């Protein structure tokens, strides 16, 4: 869990740095080279640590306080995702796949073994998005009626994340040609720019930042 929390903290700092470059992970406070090893500290790392401390402080005040904050951020992220999907599918300027049959056509010229290897490699990032499906089990002792609510949260949570993931990727592949996605790590920003123009990218980045923080 510690590694995952640290990763999310750094990801949050990356998007803070998008809006405030002086707080990015590329803004170094110091850099040292000692015996061939490099050590550095960036303002982005301090932002990451600060975000973890803030949320830890919120949870320190009790379950109810933590639940309220969690519910607020959950509502904001779902609302942002819903707006992006609905507006992207209906009003956005699309330059990607419009024939749904193309989504399932594979013409790579690669062998089956190679294709499966690449598919498995791509799934690393995909499975990361599902990583929180088991989170309710970590707080099972604090859940009311766990015999009912725990299985329900696991099932509905997994189905909900699956639906969100599929819808978001549907918007991406309709917004952008496949060749434009190659090597792009922040695909959502590129898709939002194509769909709604450069101004929308700021809103999308803010939505991702809120989602990571919450």
TrEMBL record:
Compartments (UniProt record): Membrane
Residues making up the signal peptide according to the UniProt record: none
Keywords assigned: Membrane, Transmembrane, Transmembrane helix
UniProt key word Transferase: no
Topology term for the membrane: Multi-pass membrane protein
Organism whose genome encodes this protein: marine sediment metagenome
A Gene Ontology cellular-component term: membrane
InterPro entries xref list: AA/rel_permease1 (IPR002293), AminoAcid_Transporter (IPR050598)
Protein name: Amino acid permease/ SLC12A domain-containing protein
Membrane-spanning ranges: 41-62, 74-92, 112-130, 150-175, 195-213
GO MF term list: L-amino acid transmembrane transporter activity
PANTHER family linked to this entry: AMINO ACID TRANSPORTER, SOBREMESA, ISOFORM B
């Amino acid at each position: 869990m510690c590694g995952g929390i640290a990763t999310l903290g750094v990801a949050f700092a990356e998007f803070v740095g998008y809006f405030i470059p002086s707080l990015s992970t590329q803004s170094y406070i110091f850099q040292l080279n000692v015996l061939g090893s490099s050590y550095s500290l960036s303002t982005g790392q301090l932002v990451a640590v600060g975000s973890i401390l803030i949320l830890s402080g919120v949870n320190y005040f009790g379950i109810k306080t933590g639940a309220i904050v969690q519910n607020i951020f959950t509502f904001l992220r779902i609302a942002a995702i819903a707006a992006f999907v609905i507006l992207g599918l209906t009003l956005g300027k699309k330059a990607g796949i419009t024939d749904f049959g193309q989504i399932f056509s594979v013409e790579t010229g690669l062998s089956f073994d190679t294709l499966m290897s690449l598919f498995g490699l791509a799934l690393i990032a995909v499975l990361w998005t599902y990583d929180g499906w088991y989170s309710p089990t970590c707080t099972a002792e604090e859940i009311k009626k766990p015999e009912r609510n725990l299985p329900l949260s696991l099932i509905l949570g997994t189905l909900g994340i699956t639906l969100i993931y599929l819808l978001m990727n549907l918007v991406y592949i309709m917004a952008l040609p496949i060749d434009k996605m190659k090597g792009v790590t922040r695909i959502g920003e590129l898709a939002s720019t194509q769909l709604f123009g450069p101004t929308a990218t700021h809103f999308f980045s803010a939505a991702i930042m809120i989602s990571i923080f919450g």
